[in-house]
Amino acid sequence: MQRWALIIGLLGLTLNLGCGRRASTPAAAEGPDEAAPRQVSYDARFALNQGERRRAAIAAGRMEQYSRGDSTFSLLLGAPDTLQARAPSRVTAWLFDAEGDSSATLTADSLIYFDARGQFEAFGDVEVVTQTDKQLRSEYLTWDEADRMIRTDRFVQITTPSERVEGYGLVAEENLDTYQIGRFTAQVTIDEGEAPPDTTQS
User: Fold this and answer.
1) Which of 78, 102, 175, 177 gives 89 a disulfide partner, CB atoms 3.0 to 4.6 angstroms apart?
2) Could you write out the three-class secondary structure of 58-91?
3) What is the pLDDT of residue 81?
């Protein structure tokens, strides 16, 4: 499979990111020599491309790059508005489908990107909104570039124009056209005059 090209827009640098182990909190220090980031950037913008086709774009107020042994990863955070004493901004990721069209927008408190795994993990009040008015909310999820799937083992809620589903554990297409939830409950809106679903078994 062709490797994704990682292009820095604002910084004008090429990131050499690698895999890392997810700790209980993003980018938790694993030793005194690895506690500090090796590079910090502000107002970071970068894109993930497959050949000439855009795959994702990410914006964050602060980006920290870490080394863990022979691997590296980037932690993306919102930056606080110190002048206005406002809460930190959010990290935003825009996802694009195989044709390069907008697929979904993801926002979170923080995000870790692992280049070697081709994956990012989103933390804290994660929200995914698609072009067809579908919305996903959770406290944590992962996105994989290889299969274009979103996954979480946490509580998740999906809202569409016709239903609301919530439960624990999710595997879904990034545009939420299809999804599978483990233990779940559902609330479905039926148009007035429409017959209720047949619940009898043959």
Assistant:
1) 78
2) EEEEEEEEEEECCEEEEEEECCCECCCCECCCCE
3) 54
Mean of pLDDT over the chain: 76
Quote the CA–CA distance of 82 and 144 in Å, as a whole number: 34
CATH of 5-20+37-145, one of 2.60.450, 1.25.40, 3.30.9, 1.10.10: 2.60.450
Query: Residue 145: pLDDT band by 50, 70, 90 thresholds?
Result: confident
Tokens encoding 1: 């499979």
Closest CA to 120 of 133, 107, 132: 107
pTM of the model: 0.71
Residue with tokens 């280049």: 115
Point out the least confidently predicted range of 24-33, 68-77, 119-128, 161-170: 24-33
